[in-house]
């Protein structure tokens, strides 16, 4: 039995979520541009990339290039749909219009769950940095402080979120640009006190593929999940002054941002530092590279940058979770209380998302080995599930828009439908690779269970709503007759 309902009418398909009509449009173009620029630079790049380098060696550059190509394609698809139909629910709205309400329900609530758990993880990471600077202070208190700050920021007005992200992104972009500049000077041998390394670190110590294809696969899987968070810009675009232009610009610049910040960084690090240097994992690859060059206070400088990246991600994820929840409720797919908008801000959704995130933090202290690990496994592959919904939605909606409103195709996916199908095949390959590795297999099973539960709940909700529809129509006719 198909889970896809009969096609909706054109009016229903083009209808904007009610939430978007009540949310404010306080984000300026400079906010959106910097969110797009800085959103690609997360804590996963600064910290998580170390494990990937340790597994793949210099071939981590290939791993990031392959995963970056997949992300570029996903962003192009999402950009095409979001420019044609800007909505705070982003891909969840597109999935509902293309596949059916159950798909919007599944992808939206899975993403909300991912963001809320991620808020807790980022809070824990930021608190660990603070307790290292101020020994004896409790981690949970720092997490609570960060939660209060960013919850308050998101409760006040969307422009506050935009301002925080603008300056956070500016600092991250400045830091990584400086790193790339210093690294390039060191590679060509013009940085004072350093000699050009040549290709010694790329070809020595086991060669370019020191751990063979298995190491490359581990590095590839690690790199894919470092790209999470790029979707926030399409959610934020719905509250900007010029949603269509903002999305179009963000998507068109995604390619060079990924190439420079991710692939460029990995190339600099593995050229300067031997891939098997323990400092890459212990201190983080960026700190290891700067220490290798003898840059004073490199560790503390990068800890500040990582702290900024973590706080930026917390802020953005609280924002994204609240908007996704608000959009879902506006489409009748969640508790009505979460959809209340006051002063252009979904304050109840902000509070609920923040409290849920802090609850995950408490579970990391109370039940670290069972409940919290179970939560981590459930979010392990959610981003891949979301990407699949995006690709399938784009396959369906592109034909529909070309037929009904071709002028809305401000951004177009390359070589449609062939490249979209190629991207879907790439996602399927990643799932197969995850199933082969013991650690990622557990995550795959956890995410599969979460997705299946949400899909069943969404399908039951959809059928219940369809069964009530004739009753509402009959009641409406009766009221008109009276």
From TrEMBL:
InterPro entries: AA-permease/SLC12A_dom, Amino_acid_permease_CS. It is a multi-pass membrane protein. Residues 31-441 form the Amino acid permease/ SLC12A domain. Residues 1-22 are annotated as: Disordered. It comes from the Bacteria. Gene3D superfamilies: Amino acid/polyamine transporter I. Keywords: Amino-acid transport, Membrane, Transmembrane, Transmembrane helix, Transport. It is found in: Membrane. The keyword Nucleotide-binding does not apply. The keyword Transmembrane applies. The chain crosses the membrane at residues 32-54, 60-78, 99-120, 140-158, 170-191, 216-238, 258-275, 295-314, 348-366, 372-392, 413-435, 441-461. PANTHER family: GABA PERMEASE, GAMMA-AMINOBUTYRIC ACID PERMEASE. This is Amino acid permease.
């Amino acid at each position: 039995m198909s889970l896809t309902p009969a096609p909706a009418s054109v009016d229903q398909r083009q209808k904007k979520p009610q939430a978007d009509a009540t949310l404010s449009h306080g984000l300026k173009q400079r906010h959106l541009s910097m969110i797009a620029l800085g959103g690609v630079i997360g804590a996963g790049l600064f910290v998580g990339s170390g494990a990937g380098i340790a597994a793949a060696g210099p071939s981590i550059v290939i791993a990031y290039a392959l995963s970056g190509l997949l992300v570029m394609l996903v962003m192009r698809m999402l950009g095409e749909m979001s420019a044609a139909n800007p909505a705070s629910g982003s891909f969840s709205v597109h999935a509902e219009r293309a596949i059916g309400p159950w798909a919007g329900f599944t992808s939206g609530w899975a993403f909300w769950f991912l963001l809320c758990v991620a808020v807790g993880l980022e809070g824990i990471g930021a608190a660990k940095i603070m307790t290292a600077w101020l020994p004896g202070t409790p981690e949970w208190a720092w997490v609570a402080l960060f939660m209060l700050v960013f919850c308050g920021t998101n409760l006040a007005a969307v422009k506050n979120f935009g301002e925080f992200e603008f300056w956070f992104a500016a600092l991250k972009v400045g830091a990584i640009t400086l790193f790339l500049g210093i690294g390039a000077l060191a590679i060509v041998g013009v940085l004072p006190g350093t000699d050009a390394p040549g290709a010694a670190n790329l070809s020595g110590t086991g060669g370019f593929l020191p751990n063979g294809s298995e190491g490359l696969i581990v590095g590839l899987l690690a790199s894919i999940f470092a790209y999470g968070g790029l979707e926030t810009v399409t959610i934020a675009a719905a509250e900007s002054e010029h949603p269509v232009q903002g999305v179009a610009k963000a998507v068109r610049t995604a390619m060079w941002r990924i190439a420079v910040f991710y692939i460029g960084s990995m190339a600099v690090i593995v050229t300067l530092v031997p891939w098997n240097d323990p400092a890459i994992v212990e201190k983080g690859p960026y700190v290891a590279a700067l220490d290798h060059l003898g840059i004073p206070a490199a560790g503390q400088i990068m800890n500040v940058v990582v702290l900024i990246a973590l706080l930026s991600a917390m802020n953005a994820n609280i924002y994204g979770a609240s908007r996704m929840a608000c959009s879902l409720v506006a489409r009748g797919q969640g508790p009505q209380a979460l959809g209340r908008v006051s002063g252009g801000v979904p304050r109840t959704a902000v509070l609920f998302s923040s409290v849920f995130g802090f609850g995950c933090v408490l579970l990391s202290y109370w039940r670290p080995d069972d409940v919290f690990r179970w939560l981590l496994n459930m979010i392990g592959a959610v981003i891949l599930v979301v990407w699949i919904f995006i690709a399938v939605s784009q396959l369906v909606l592109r034909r529909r828009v070309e037929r009904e409103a071709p002028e809305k195709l401000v951004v177009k996916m390359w070589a449609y439908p062939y490249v979209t199908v190629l991207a879907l095949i790439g996602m399927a390959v990643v799932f197969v690779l995850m199933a082969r590795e013991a650690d990622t297999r557990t995550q795959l099973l956890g995410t599969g269970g979460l997705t299946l539960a949400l899909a069943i709940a969404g399908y039951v909700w959809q059928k219940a709503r369809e069964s009530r529809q004739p009753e509402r129509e009959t009641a409406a006719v009766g009221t008109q007759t009276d």
